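Supplementary Note 2. Why include the ligand at all?

Several targets in our set were suspected to adopt different conformations when bound, so apo predictions alone were not considered sufficient. For every target with a known small-molecule partner we therefore ran a joint prediction. The input for 2-OXO-4-methylpentanoic acid is given below.
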Amino acid sequence: MTHKLAVLPGDGIGPDIVREACKVLEVLRADFGLDVAWEEAPVGGTAYDQTGHPLPDTTLELAKSADAVLLGAVGGPQWDNLDYTLRPERVALLGLRKELDLFANLRPAKVFPELVDASALRPEVAEGIDIMVVRELTSGIYFGEPRGVEELPDGRRKGLNSLVYTSDEIERIARVAFEIARKRSGRVCSVDKANVLEVSQLWRDVVSHVGQREFPDVELSHMYVDNAAMQLVRDPKQFDVMVTTNMFGDILSDEASMLTGSIGLLPSASLSAEGAGMYEPIHGSAPDIAGIGKANPLATILSTAMMLRYSLDEIELADRIERAVGQVLADGLRTPDIAGEGERAIGTAEMGDAVVAALRG
Ligand SMILES: NC(=O)C1=CN([C@@H]2O[C@H](COP(=O)(O)OP(=O)(O)OC[C@H]3O[C@@H](n4cnc5c(N)ncnc54)[C@H](O)[C@@H]3O)[C@@H](O)[C@H]2O)C=CC1
Ligand SMILES: CC(C)CC(=O)C(=O)O
Ligand SMILES: [Mg+2]
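The joint prediction is reproduced in C-alpha cell form.
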C-alpha cells in the first residue's frame, strides 16, 4: 500500500532543507521501489501570511490523515511580534504536537566517525558518542496552565508559565525510554531538578516506580539538569538513553548537537501511542541563513530515515539513507557549519545531491 506523507516545509530554511529530503524520497521511489506519495501544505509564519493562521485546518487535517509528517521548521523575526495566540512556534508546532498527541520525542545524538574533528570536544572525548535523548513533548512548561502576562494593580506586569506533569504523562514517556534502553545498552539516566521542583520529585518517583515494576533489567540513574548539562560536555559517553521533560530535553538536545559537530546534523522523531509520527530536524528556521544555500540538510535527511524506520517500517531503506550520509561525510563533503578551517564548503543543494548520488551508488 502507498505510504501517504504530509510534507510541511514551513519557514526560514525549512523549504531549503525539506527540498533536499524530498530528493531523497524521489530516489527511493524511483530506484528502490518505495511506494510513497506526498502532499505539501503551508505551516507556520508562511501559512499565517497566506491564510491568517499558522496551522490552517487543511494542513492539520492533512497531517492527521497521513501515515507520517515531515516538517522543516517554523518561526522567524517577521512573526516575533504577533500576539502569542498567533505565533507560529506556539500555534503550529505545539499545535501539531498536541493535536497528534506526539508525546515521545526521540533525539539521537551520534558522532559520525568522519566528523570527530567537527565536534566541540576533544577528539578522544567525542569519538563514539551515541546518546538517545527521550524528551516528553506534549506537556510540561510549554503547555501548562495558567500562563500569560497580566497587569498588576501597582502598574507592574507579571509573567506566568506553569510546569505541570501528571503521573500518567510521566509513566508513558518513562516506558518509551526504558523500552529503547532495552534495545541499546540497558541504561537510562532520568534528568530532573528534584532538589527544587515538586514536579521533578514526582517525575523521579514515577520514573523509579516504572523502572522497578516493569523494567528491573534496565539500570536507572537520576541526575539534576544543571549537572547533566555539564556532564554532557565533560564525559558524554557516560550517557546512553536520557529521559527528561519538555523544556530540559529541548535545551539538552541543542547542547548535545554540538558534541556531534552541528545542530544541522540532529534529526528527531515525535511519536504518539496510536502510531502517528512527525519527523523534523531539532533546529529551528535559522533565519540568518535562509534561502542562501548555507543550511545543512542532513538533519532533515536523517529525520526522513527515522520516518522510514519508525512510521513506514522500511528499515532497510532507512539504513541505506544513513549509510549514504556516512558516505558523503567520508568523501569529505561539508556544508559551512561542519567545514573545518580552510576546508571547502558546499551548499545545501549540493549536499542533497551528494546524498542522492551516494544512495544510487
Ligand atoms: N522546530 C522548530 O520549528 C523550531 C523553531 N524555532 C524557531 O526558529 C527561529 C530561529 O531560532 P534560533 O533560536 O535562531 O534557532 P535555530 O536553530 O533556528 O538557529 C540557531 C543557530 O544554528 C544555525 N542553524 C540551525 N539550523 C542549521 C542548519 N540546518 N545548518 C546550519 N546551521 C544551522 C542557525 O544559522 C543559527 O546560527 C525562531 O523563530 C525560533 O522560535 C526554534 C527551534 C525549533
Ligand atoms: C520552538 C519550540 C516550541 C520548540 C523547540 O525549540 C524544539 O522543539 O526544539
Ligand atoms: Mg529546540
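DSSP finds twelve helices and twelve strands in the chain. Residues 14-32 form the longest helix (19 residues). Comparable summaries for the other entries are listed in the accompanying table.
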